[in-house]
Amino acid sequence: MKVPTKDLAIIACGALSVDLSRALAALGVDCDLHPLPPVLHNRPERIANAVEEQILRLRPDYRQLAIGYADCGTYGALDELCERYSLVRLPGQHCYDLLAGPPRIEALLAEEPGTYFLTDFLVAAFDRLVWQELGLDRHPQLHGDYFGNYRRVVWLASQRTTELEEAANRAAYRLGLPLDIVDIMDIMDIVDITHGSSLMAYTSGILHP
């Protein structure tokens, strides 16, 4: 039986991995981050299987694993993996909770349940990860199937630049939805106050399993 020689690996959402890596480093978590393809953002039903494949691949090499996803539309499938393999995941229903804080996300959804969220990463990669990946560049008739229940786009903007703002407006225009821009803190500022300790709770679960 192979003996693990490395300490910690985190299997993370590719759309969140850069921010998560910066936050964990600032909190003193030494780990290897293994991001999954960001396109899984569009296919949450595939996330749990993809995560489990990585668990089985990495487990022989690492003494400890963790999951860098919230529930993220898996409807408890990631929780089942966490229970089965004794792992921790990011708290909350959405990975957006890490960036904006659960109370703010809950308030935005209560205000308009049909909210489609974009982060800086998703704004910058919208054409490739959303429009082209969903086939809307080739089959525009599918627009209503994917986005017919949405009523607005909310960009959670931590690095608000002219270039990103133009990209966010283009994305909203393509979706045929109004754009609201919600300014949020950079991840390093979030580390300083750990909005409601959710990030600290996750870190504690990793460091003290």
State Rg.
18 Å
- Helicity level: 40-55%
Which stretches of 5+ consecutive residues score pLDDT under 50?
none
Give the structural class: alpha/beta
Q: Give the ordered list of helices and strands.
A: EHEHEHHHEHHHEHEHH
| Share of β-strand residues | 15-25%
Q: Largest sheet at a glance?
A: 3 strands, parallel
> What is the domain total for the residues?
2
SS field, number of helical segments: 11
Description:
This protein has 209 residues and is an alpha/beta fold. The protein has 2 domains: 6-96 and 187-207, Rossmann fold (3-Layer(aba) Sandwich); 97-183, no CATH class. The chain is globular and about 55 Å long. Helices cover 45% and strands 17% of the residues. Helix 1 (17-26) links the parallel strand 1 (6-13) and strand 2 (32-36). Helix 1 packs across helix 10 (187-193). The model has no long low-confidence stretch (mean pLDDT 87). It contains 11 helices and 6 strands. It has a 3-stranded parallel β-sheet with strand order 2-1-3, sandwiched between helices.
Task: Record the SSE blueprint.
Layout: E1 6-13, H1 17-26, E2 32-36, H2 47-58, E3 62-68, H3 77-85, H4 96-100, H5 102-111, E4 115-119, H6 120-124, H7 126-132, H8 143-147, E5 152-157, H9 162-175, E6 179-183, H10 187-193, H11 198-207
Parallel strand pairs: 1-2, 1-3, 4-5, 5-6
Helix pairs in contact: 1-10
Q: What is shown here, in short?
A:
This protein is of the alpha/beta class and 209 residues long.
What key attributes describe this structure?
single chain; 209 residues; alpha/beta; Rossmann fold; 3-stranded parallel β-sheet; 11 helices; 6 strands; globular
